[in-house]
Write a structure and sequence with these properties.
Blueprint (H helix, E strand, L loop, with lengths): L17 E5 L2 E6 L10 H13 L8 E6 L3 E3 L4 H8 L4 H20 L4 E5 L2 E3 L1 H8 L2 E5 L3 E3 L14 H9 L1 H10 L3 E2 H7 L4 E3 L4 H13 L3 H14 L4 H15 L3 H12 L9
Parallel strand pairs: 2-3, 3-5, 4-6, 5-7, 6-8, 7-10
Antiparallel strand pairs: 1-2, 8-9
Helix pairs in contact: 1-3, 5-6, 9-10
Length: 275
């Protein structure tokens, strides 16, 4: 997306998850099925770096997150993270917790739309990664669980106490984050956590269809819409209206706005350019 590049090359091979790109759709697969795709320190670091890099690329218009096997992501690995943190110094612990927050911050600030295809377990950090996505296509087998209090930590982790109330309301967010109980897909859909609820055997098809729609659409308009949604959460009405007015004025000078008018006049589908 950015025309400005420094000397550092793009990363083409990621060691701690499977990553593929085809026709502007990037697919990231958590690939530790024997451990329900539990996260490690290295997985977090690769996620942070990938999300920082994506806005600089011109070959990715949407990111799809999915999990291999029986789960989306079961959160932090009990042995490789929880066990390891018991021996860490305070400065090391803070570096780790800040890194997990950096992942969520990068997800919300990344102009590329992010779709999470959720099935089976989405627990702890896995549930927050799904929460931080722009869209959640959820299979009926899915269960969300914000488990942080179950391990003796605050339920407010990785931005969960910021993001979750904005989707499901303060009362339900309090229940989910304090008690850490599992939330089945049907209830998650009723709460407003789900973008699309599908049968398990339709999950991949539905998630890829949404990703394809986003990749083929007016990507600049999508990117700025995402930015406005994030920024306006913490703004007053006057500031929000001014930000929207400036954004619309900029986009009215764009190629996609002109393309819509041409397509409408010529009675054909628009050919979006993302500019």
């Amino acid at each position: 997306m950015s025309p400005f590049r420094g000397s550092a090359p793009f990363t083409e091979n990621w060691k701690h998850f499977r990553f593929e790109r085809q026709d502007f759709v990037a697919t990231l697969t958590f690939d530790r099925p024997a451990k329900l795709n539990a996260l490690t320190f290295d997985t977090y670091a690769d996620l942070r770096d990938l999300l920082t890099e994506l806005p600089q690329r011109d070959d990715t218009r949407v990111l799809l997150l999915r999990g291999e096997g029986r789960a989306f992501c079961s959160g932090g690995d009990v042995d490789e993270i929880i066990g390891a943190t018991l021996a860490m110094r305070p400065d090391e612990l803070l570096a780790f917790t800040r890194m997990t927050g950096d992942v969520v911050k990068a997800m919300r600030e990344c102009p590329v739309p992010i779709v999470a295809a959720v099935h089976g377990t989405a627990a702890g950090a896995g549930s927050v990664l799904a929460l931080a996505a722009d869209f959640r296509v959820v299979a009926r087998s899915a269960q969300f669980a914000f488990l942080f209090t179950r391990v003796g930590l605050a339920g407010a982790d990785m931005g969960a106490a910021y993001l979750l109330p904005r989707l499901v309301g303060l009362g339900r967010a309090t229940e989910l984050l304090m008690l850490g109980d599992a939330l089945p897909a049907e209830d998650a859909n009723r709460y407003g956590l789900v973008s699309e609820l599908v049968e398990d055997d339709s999950l991949d098809e539905a998630a890829h269809a949404l990703a394809r729609r986003l990749a083929d659409g007016p990507t600049q308009a999508y990117a700025l819409t995402k930015a406005l949604l994030s920024r306006e959460l913490d703004m007053g009405l006057s500031g929000a209206l001014e930000l929207e007015a400036v954004t619309q004025a900029l986009l009215m000078n764009g190629a996609d706005y002109r393309e819509f008018h041409a397509a409408f006049t010529e009675k054909r589908p628009p050919q979006w350019q993302g500019r």
